[in-house]
Design a protein that fits this description.
The chain is an all-alpha fold and about 575 residues long. The chain is built from 29 helices and 2 strands. Helix 11 packs parallel to helix 14 (about 280-290).
């Protein structure tokens, strides 16, 4: 296999494209693909040329590339091109090569095969479409309950990974999600509103209890699937945190999918059951509390905030909860909510135990090596105890002393707005992102960007993104840092993108011209990396840019955007 044969369609010349087409049309298509083994990046183009389709037996070509990271990425990007039969053949052949492949590649291929098999099955039916009219009429037979549960269970989906930071990646992939998009979604984009609006208000408590039992088992199984796929964790920020900002109804829950629908339906059905028959509802609190799944424990925290749950039970949940979940991941949202609601109902002894846990702070081993662990622990204690104080909750002597000690050591710290308590990522607008710009506070302009990159590499999930936060709060300082990089001949696209999204906030009248001048200095070969974001920014600032900057920059963006053969031919006409 020649090096030229491994070129992608984007890298190849028109002659090389035609050469490949000639080889493929001369006879045995699959045999030719297997023999010359071109990059699998050609797969989508071959589909557009109608040379391959779902019925083309591509297994031999794929098998030759089992040891290729790029092959995983390309198959994931074109996963709709494969049939369950192909997946069966490929898995049989994969099992014969396990000893020669890395565990990461084996895991990736198995996830891909699983998606190919289940995607077709899902496409044949829509459980919710079929059962929704029956549920509205009050038909909650065992068959409907089973299909209802399956409709809400998040299921594996594989696709092309799309990340603004992939081009700047310098480390080797460590998990499947580094190579392909891995999501867990419910069928047909089913939402909590659709489900709850159809659910009969007068459903018998015994039936609701059975449905909650089945949903709990389905959710637990889906969580285990996501953990196995490497996108969920019981000890770290993961997919369920993105999917479910808050178990309780909250404005941060807008436009969420994945695990969100089933979690919200469980929470609301449990609340309805509690009002009808507390004896049937309360055992679920203990069931969720004892689960090994962090997302299940979030349901227990949510439920315990209800006054119908005995205060001793609610306190016990906080006393036994893994300590990191008080402060880190979105479990903190439910912890804050529970403490605000029930703190004054707890006995003195229970409050003392819970306070000791809070003053201890998150475990140091929850943070990455190389991070400023003590600062992060102090910040977590400051946020938690400070929020309790602001909410008017009674603090013991030790808690007050610890809060004062942290304030003395970090006098510049301030609490975030009360409504953001517990949320480590807060979306208040199109691009508002929580982070700690103070982490870059003492860095000189010429070292600012490199320090931001180092901070991002060692950041923990509770910190947000210091560079993005700096771009939002001090965009002029971020601009000075980028200008210093440009003077060194460095053009980090990862740093420019969030800056350009935040740049319209700059009130300095000279800033747009300075930004445009820098963009015009950007070397053309790599300008494509920033062209889409620059296009958005220039559209926002076109009215204030001088034409001597506006039109050259537009031309540069146009030159950098990849063009199809059809577009080029249209220009030649």
């Amino acid at each position: 296999m020649t090096e030229a044969a491994k070129k992608t369609p984007r890298d190849a010349t028109e002659f090389e494209r035609e050469q490949l087409r000639f080889f493929l049309l001369r006879g045995d298509l699959v045999g030719t693909l297997t023999e010359i083994n071109p990059s699998l990046a050609w797969l989508s183009l071959l589909g557009e040329m109608q040379l391959v389709n779902r019925d083309t037996p591509l297994a031999p070509w794929i098998e030759r590339n089992f040891d290729s990271v790029e092959a995983v990425q390309e198959v994931a990007a074109n996963i709709q091109s494969f049939t369950p039969e192909t997946a069966d053949v490929l898995e049989f052949r994969l099992n014969r090569k396990l000893s020669s492949l890395s565990p990461l590649l084996v895991q990736c291929w198995r996830l891909i095969f699983r998606h190919i098999r289940t995607a077709k099955q899902r496409g044949l039916q829509s459980d919710w479409f079929d059962i929704e009219p029956r549920i509205r009429r009050g038909d909650l037979s065992p068959e409907v309950q089973e299909r209802f549960t399956q409709a809400l269970r998040p299921k594996l989906q594989i696709g092309k990974r799309s990340s603004l930071y992939d081009r700047d990646r310098t480390t080797a992939p460590e998990r499947p999600s580094d190579l392909m998009a891995i999501d867990f979604e419910v069928e047909d984009g089913l939402t909590e509103e659709e489900v709850l609006s159809a659910w009969p208000a007068k459903t018998a408590p015994a039936i609701e209890a059975r449905v909650l039992q089945e949903l709990t088992h389905a959710l637990s199984a889906a969580i285990e699937d996501a953990i196995d796929a490497g996108v969920e964790s019981n000890r770290g920020y993961s997919t369920s945190d993105s999917d479910v900002p808050s178990v309780a109804e909250h404005g941060q829950n807008l436009y969420r999918s994945g695990f969100f629908a089933i979690v919200r339906v469980v929470a609301e059905l449990w609340t309805r059951l509690l009002r009808k028959d507390a004896a049937l509802a309360l055992p679920f609190v203990a069931l969720w509390q004892q689960s090994e799944s962090r997302l299940m424990r979030r349901l227990a925290l949510f439920a315990a905030a209800d006054p119908a749950v005995p205060a001793s039970v609610a306190a016990d949940i906080l006393k036994t909860l893994p300590l990191g979940e008080f402060f880190l991941t979105n479990s903190a949202v439910e912890v804050y909510r529970l403490i605000r609601s029930r703190w004054e109902h707890f006995g003195v002894a229970d409050r003392e135990v819970i306070e000791r846990r809070i003053t201890e702070g998150p475990p140091a081993d929850w943070f990455k090596e190389g991070s400023e662990k003590q600062r992060l622990i102090d910040r977590a204690r400051f946020d938690f105890l400070g929020e309790m104080e602001r909410a008017g909750l009674t603090l013991g002597q030790q808690a007050r002393a610890v809060l004062e000690e942290v304030r003395t050591g970090w006098p510049q710290w301030e609490l975030r707005p009360a409504e953001q308590a517990g949320f480590h990522i807060w979306t208040g607008g199109a691009r508002d992102i929580v982070g700690d710009p103070a982490k870059l506070g003492d860095i000189s302009d010429d070292k600012l960007v490199s320090a931001a990159k180092k901070a991002a590499e060692t950041a923990d999930f509770m910190e947000g993104d210091a560079w993005q936060a700096l771009c939002q709060t001090e965009p002029l300082r971020a601009l000075r840092g980028l200008a210093a990089e440009a003077d060194k001949g460095l053009w980090p696209a990862w740093a420019w993108r969030p800056f350009l999204w935040a740049a319209p906030k700059i009130e300095d009248l000279n800033a747009p011209a300075a930004i445009a001048q820098l963009l015009l200095r950007w070397p053309l070969p790599s300008f494509e990396e920033i062209a889409d974001t620059a296009s958005w920014w220039i559209n926002e600032k076109a009215a204030v840019l001088d034409e001597s900057l506006l039109w050259p920059l537009w031309d540069r963006i146009a030159d950098a955007v990849p063009r199809t053969a059809d577009e080029e031919a249209a220009d030649d006409e």
